[in-house]
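Long-time lurker. I teach an intro course on protein structure, and each term I like to show students one example going from raw sequence to a predicted 3D structure in token notation. This year I'd like something fresh instead of my usual example. Would anyone be willing to generate the tokens for the chain below so I can use it in lecture? Attribution to the forum is fine with me.
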Amino acid sequence: MTGPARVRFAPSPTGSLHVGGARTALFNWLIARHTGGVFVLRLEDTDRERSTPESEAEILRCLTWLGLDWDEGPERQSERGDVYDAAIATLKASGAIYPAYETDDELEAQRAAARADKRAPVVRGRRERDPAEIAALEAEGRRPAWRFAVEVPGETVIQDYVRGPVTFDHAQIEDFIVVRSDGTPTYNLAAAVDDVDMGITHVLRGEDHISNTPKQMMVMRALGAAPPDYAHIPLILGEDRKRLSKRHGAASVEDLEAAGFLPQAVVNALALLGWSFDDKTTIFTVDELVKAFSVGRVSKSPAIFDLKKLQVMNGRHLRLMPADEFVEALVGWLRSTGYIDARGPGAEERVRASAPLVKRKISTFADYDDLAGWLFTPLEIEPAAWEVLTRDVKHSIQVIGGGLGRLEALPEFTAETVKDALQDQLHVMGEAARDFLEPQRIAVTGRLVSTGTYESLALLGPEEAFARYRATLARLAELWAAA
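-- Reply from a regular --
Happy to contribute to a lecture. Here you go:
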């Protein structure tokens, strides 16, 4: 692929932006940016019953969140009726399309006869009817759909950038409808006309569209235009190798955003769904992707979407963020979900103070509550954490009490002084670090997994930390007394 490319992303605004659609948008955007070309956004909103302004707005918002800015558009098919009417008139005048009056029963009889003869169950209308017959059919109330007259015998060959040459035998392609009986254009007509009218040079889309491509190429040629170049990329599957859907955890960009993923990590992961730069590089910035991307490295095999791998990748991107950017991104996400407002006055300040502590462990912003949610609630020891403390109640009382004694004697309460004090107590008691530090963490956080022990204590402050220590000791003492 050489020279500036004019590419397009053409979603239907009938729902959220699916992961597969987002990858198609990304690949097209990368081609445009890599070649210094143009990225056109086109909304295929001719399905009037299912297309909604809300879906359109959400698709545009998700593209913006991903950083996929468009150079032209959004163009809406619903606003291009005059363009389609002109193309239809040209096709009628040339005889490339014809009015088809066949009923559903007549078409099904054609298919049944073809199956009985072991032929492809394609349908073809009667291309020639005399005016009297047409008048009689119209009098019955029949309104024709307009079908494209597929040339048989014949074939259409796609020189596909991903799959190589793909040949379609016209005997296997029915005379497809280009204009419905109500006069509205079908997808294959509108998409073909749009690609010609918008000067699209390269069409990159999912391989599920490949059966539409020869039909659209026929329409373009009948209009006197040369088809663009094509690349059909493999489908995205879940880990069970079935087509990606909600059951796999997150099937849309909106789902991923709500789950606390970074847009740059999602872009990185999407780029690797069916494309690779080499056998080892997995972390890319957006600028690096623009520089490295080429359609020639897109695989023919289905891509597997692994949410766990995305979480690992997202964690790496989070740790690569400058500290101040991480804090603002975390606060912004927690604010957008209502998390901060729900935790009352001072919550944002505590989030900001705890951000450096979670940055080392967090995989997504949604992990924040698991690591630091204890900062906003009274002490409540989780059952699994309580089980750890009660395996040896006497030992837990000794190590927690010893830790509290050391900390209460500190003239200054910081992460560094807390660490020194607890390390001193550890050496005095001769306990393994885990056996000593884990009860300290549980005593103040109530959890097996949290932010670091020293930093957590310093963040709480001495008054609240000591209160939690004493509450845990009291509960353990009560259990010891009852034994």
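Some talking points for your students: The first strand starts at residue 6 and ends at 9. The mean pLDDT is 93.
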